[in-house]
Amino acid sequence: MSIHLANIGDDEAYKPCAHDYQTNCGNCRLNAICLPLALESEDIAQLDEIIQRSKPIQKNQHLYREEDNFQSVYAVRSGTLKAYKTTDDGREQVTGFYFPGEILGMDGIANNSHASSAKALETSAVCEIPFSSLEKLSTLMPSLQRHFFQLMSREITEDQQLITLLSKNSADERVASLMLSISTRNARRKLSATQFRLPMSRVDIGNYLGLTVETVSRVFSRMQKMDLLSVDNKEIEIKDIQGLRDMANLGS
Amino acid sequence: MSIHLANIGDDEAYKPCAHDYQTNCGNCRLNAICLPLALESEDIAQLDEIIQRSKPIQKNQHLYREEDNFQSVYAVRSGTLKAYKTTDDGREQVTGFYFPGEILGMDGIANNSHASSAKALETSAVCEIPFSSLEKLSTLMPSLQRHFFQLMSREITEDQQLITLLSKNSADERVASLMLSISTRNARRKLSATQFRLPMSRVDIGNYLGLTVETVSRVFSRMQKMDLLSVDNKEIEIKDIQGLRDMANLGS
DNA sequence: TATTGAACATGACGTAGATCATGGTAGATG
DNA sequence: CATCTACCATGATCTACGTCATGTTCAATA
User: Of the candidates B94, B41, B90, which has an alpha carbon nearest to the alpha carbon of residue A164?
Assistant: First the structure.
């Protein structure tokens, strides 16, 4: 098992068969990411009540599929998922990767049906948040309402970042940006910002970044030659984070 | 004055100096787009009270700038605006065009500061919706809360569409898609789906679609040669909408 | 009316990244 | 253990689109 998984593995998430997880939002160590809001403890208790902690999702299993009836949004507890749309001519477009503490499924609210599919890239666990309950609770708890408005707004700004990346940046810049993004998201979860295992394949990376697998491979090779990072299959070690930032060309 | 503006011009929006517009959400002919929800008439009256109808914005004037303090979201009453981000190396990325009935500014909620700038492409009028009032009202009116969740979700799905377009589609497909998008958005407002004036420059189109001006020009020329549409500067007439759909390659 | 300048069109040419082809490696399965 | 199949790396070639250069049109202003 990888270092990455081992670090997560000591979490409560890995009790696949227990019906009553001892987890709740109050003691979850991801709540700083997932719920960065000043909820009163009784508020958190109320939130806990509507959240369902599901059994693990196996690798390649779907959490939901495009056009499924929309019921819930999901917070990642452990593992990683990718969201993707299937284009009209049958190809796939990866629209995002979701790490522990991050929330997915909000694109389904607009039409009461999921606008994308979500698939586990490794064994993962999620908290299911039924949206109708969330709505009701939000009218009672202004800070929760605000939190969800902010979460959705953040999703918008992140999508706009990706739009800019796809529209204006070279292959080198795109891959470097993704590596930096994963690095900072790891750091937020108190994991190493410089050493990690990529949960996704080169195909997924290329698809997400609008590049072919071959180009992604070549960029990784180039980065290694420049001593920015070392790549051993999916194991990444960032060796020169400033150099990587320079390559990403995103300022500072 | 163009056909497009003339059609809008009979609207109440064009009373630049009046302090008391006779407009309200109840009688606004855009409310089917802007508020497609079953609000009770007294609810609409409440909403009306928080909405401020501002004086027109002149062409090239900003509605807000990136990093401005976020206070409000805006509904376009007349005219057109573009939203854009300035990348770290100083270039511009157009992230969206906003037509009457559409809402912009929601990307500012996440960080209480606008994540993009908004500039009028022609003389325009907007309804300003102070967000804090909207939040308060939303806790009292579940249907309004739901509406805004849906609006934001729609913004997410549209951004994802653009991501896919940029990542997977050719120049022809991108331009054709934009023309079709403008066409359907015109139709929603009971304007012609086949004849309209583009409010934005070729530069803006290219920027939005991740293409250079030259490429956009060439695509327009190609489309004319194929008799899909006729272009006279900014005046567009779609002559073969099915042909255009085929070119866009987005299915049906 | 002449003049200036933005916005647009179009040709010639260069290039980043796609496509095609081949080979290597690591984990799954009989 | 052998075999199979994803997944990844890397070279050779091709091409869509960018870049550069030049010209046109039209609206604004002297």
Answer: B94
